[in-house]
Amino acid sequence: MKKAKKVVLLSLALLMIAVPLTAFGATGELQAVSFRNAQIVEKFSPEKYDYTLKLTDPKTTPTLKDYRLSGDANLFVTYSYDDARHQTGVQVTLEYASGSTIYSFHYQNAAFYDKSENNYLREIQCPFGVVDPAITRDTTDYRLYIPSDLTTLNLSAATEDIGAYCEMPTEIALSAEQELDIPVTVTASNGEKRLYSFSVKRTDKTTKEFALLVESGNTDILVRSERFYQKPAFLIAVLATAGAILLLMLLVRIAKRLTVEVSDTDEKEFFDTTE
């Protein structure tokens, strides 16, 4: 009887330990993935981690098109390069509480690296970030909206030309409330550089709220949810008010200088009877 009680108590103790460990060790699995401008040669399987990627246009960088996850994990895409900074493939990383998993996709038919002046950025990827406006060739300054409580910013960038190289921080630790400007430099295969800037702005949404809005495609809400004191309209209003106050003060000073005294301080009053 005593032995049976010991077994029960031991089982309960192990269960109490195992439950929190299981919760902490929550993992995710990549069920499916696809790319723009590329086709995976092999059949994809969550248990297989190396693949060959055939490019539709051998000169164009492939980008993430769609994916399906099971479990609890964050996904982000990076690009692999050789020693000469030539793009050689795509890496899809899953990060979860107990670790990470990397799926590698190696280019099968990347174009020979001729000299090119193409130093344009195609896209920026951030698991908890929304870029506004959409990246185009005509603009180099953008805003990157993030959750109010985000403390680690993971970034990756894709260039238009597969022969171009992008320099940018891939992971940035943020303090509470911190906002910053992130420089991104794209260097063409002929050496010409183009500088981009991404101004990080915190929204009033938490990471969980942010992720739900991104998943549902309601990213315009995130842009509108920028904290009121950061919005351009608010800043313009503040500057306009300050300018109006300064102008009013200047006009008052000018008016004072132009005011003519109606009496001479040295002249006696007309009805003054003092001797």
Task: Report on the architecture of this protein.
This protein has a five-stranded mixed beta sheet with strand order 2-3-7-6-5, with no helix packed on it. The chain has 275 residues and is of the alpha+beta class. It has helices at residues 2-24, 207-215, 219-224, 232-258; strands spanning 28-36, 38-40, 50-55, 63-71, 74-81, 87-96, 99-107, 121-125, 130-132, 141-146, 152-154, 156-159, 165-167, 171-173, 181-187, 193-202. A hairpin with a 5-residue loop joins strand 5 (74-81) and strand 6 (87-96). The termini are far apart. The chain has four helices and 16 strands.
The percent range for helix content is: 10-25%
- Give the ordered list of helices and strands: HEEEEEEEEEEEEEEEEHHH
Oligomerization status of the protein chains: single chain
Q: Give me the count of strands.
A: 16
Task: Describe the largest sheet.
Answer: 5 strands, mixed
**Count of discrete alpha- or pi-helical segments spanning 4 or more residues:** 4
Task: Give the overall pLDDT as a whole number.
Answer: 82
Distance between the termini: 127 Å
Shape: globular
Derived structural class: alpha+beta
Q: Rounded to an integer, what's the Rg over CA atoms?
A: 31 Å
Strands of the widest sheet, in order across it, are: 2-3-7-6-5
Percent in strands: 35-45%
Low-confidence stretches: 7-25
